[in-house]
UniProtKB/TrEMBL annotation:
An example Gene Ontology biological process: nuclear-transcribed mRNA poly(A) tail shortening
One Pfam family, short name: PAN2_N
Signal peptide: none
GO molecular function annotation: poly(A)-specific ribonuclease activity
Protein name: PAN2-PAN3 deadenylation complex catalytic subunit PAN2 N-terminal domain-containing protein
PANTHER family linked to this entry: DEADENYLATION COMPLEX CATALYTIC SUBUNIT PAN2, PAN2-PAN3 DEADENYLATION COMPLEX CATALYTIC SUBUNIT PAN2
Positions of the PAN2-PAN3 deadenylation complex catalytic subunit PAN2 N-terminal domain: 10-94
Lineage of producing organism: Eukaryota, Metazoa, Ecdysozoa, Arthropoda, Crustacea
A Gene Ontology cellular-component term: P-body
Length: 97
């Protein structure tokens, strides 16, 4: 590390097939999890030093994930037309349009 403020540790596959870019990333304050959302409306969580895939679920079939906010009880996922609350294991809790 030559004077940089960070150190490269690991890469992670953001989505299956690699066809869509990552739109949103959020660190979880309650668990050691990194959340990512992509342009296909899919959210994945990554855990551990190798950023292995932990959970993965579809939030919207046509809209990109614009922002992710993990709170204590659910993970909030914002798309263009709605807000979805998902349990951490991927089960939908609520949807606001």
């Amino acid at each position: 590390m030559s004077g940089c403020g960070y150190e490269y540790r690991e890469t992670a596959i953001a989505d299956i097939g690699g066809a869509f870019g990552v739109n949103s990333v959020a660190f979880d304050r309650f668990e050691e999890i990194l959340w990512s959302g992509n342009a296909a409306g899919h959210v994945s969580s990554h855990i551990g030093p190798n950023l292995g895939r932990y959970t993965s679920f579809q939030v919207h079939m046509e809209e990109e994930i614009r922002q992710i906010l993990p709170i204590e009880s659910v993970v909030l996922c914002l798309t263009r037309s709605g807000l979805r609350g998902q349990l951490r294991r991927g089960i939908p809790a609520f949807t606001f349009k």
